[in-house]
Write a structure and sequence with these properties.
CATH topology: Rossmann fold
Strand content: 5-15%
Strand order of the largest sheet: 3-2-1-4-5
Radius of gyration: 14 Å
Protein name: Putative toxin-antitoxin system toxin component, PIN family
InterPro entries: PIN-like_dom_sf (IPR029060), PIN_dom (IPR002716), PIN_toxin-like (IPR002850)
Structural class: alpha/beta
Distance between the termini: 11 Å
Largest sheet: 5 strands, parallel
Organism: Pseudobutyrivibrio ruminis DSM 9787
CATH class: Alpha Beta
Pfam families: PIN_3
Length: 140
């Protein structure tokens, strides 16, 4: 089973609209078609940015916290012992790369491909949700 890291921008897009590849990715996650790896820094980022960027008339704190709890329940919890900072173009993404390396994930799924370009030097491929969905569907 594929193991991925989902970048926060993909979660936000998937929760904001029931159309598009990000929403489909979340459906496939719910269907247990792949695994996700998580870390404390990533979960804290998820929570902070979801609460900041999602429509608060639709998503209350309790809705967001329930979603985060679900991710914590199904995700592979990884502790980071080695830091690669600074490595990426956006220093705020370094913790995602560190998680990807520690978890030996297959992909980082993101819309910010340019921010993760250097991850390929370390054997980590960053791809869009649509590209990852194609990989999952081809494996069936």
């Amino acid at each position: 089973m594929k193991n991925i890291i989902i970048d926060t921008n993909v979660l936000i897009a998937g929760l904001q609209s029931k159309r598009g590849q990000s929403y489909r990715l979340l459906q496939l996650l719910y269907e247990k078609r792949f695994e996700i790896s998580i870390s404390v820094p990533l979960i804290l980022e998820y929570e902070a940015l979801l609460k900041k960027k999602l429509d608060r008339n639709i998503f209350s704190d309790s809705h967001i916290e329930a979603f985060i709890d679900y991710l914590c329940k199904i995700g592979r919890h990884i502790k980071i012992y080695y830091l690669w900072r600074p490595y990426l173009k956006d220093a705020f993404d370094d913790h995602v790369l560190e998680l990807a390396l520690a978890s030996e994930c297959d992909y980082i799924v993101t819309y910010n491909l340019k921010d993760f370009k250097r991850a390929e030097e370390l054997g980590i491929k960053a791809i869009t949700p649509g590209a990852f969905i194609e990989i999952i569907l081809k494996e069936e």
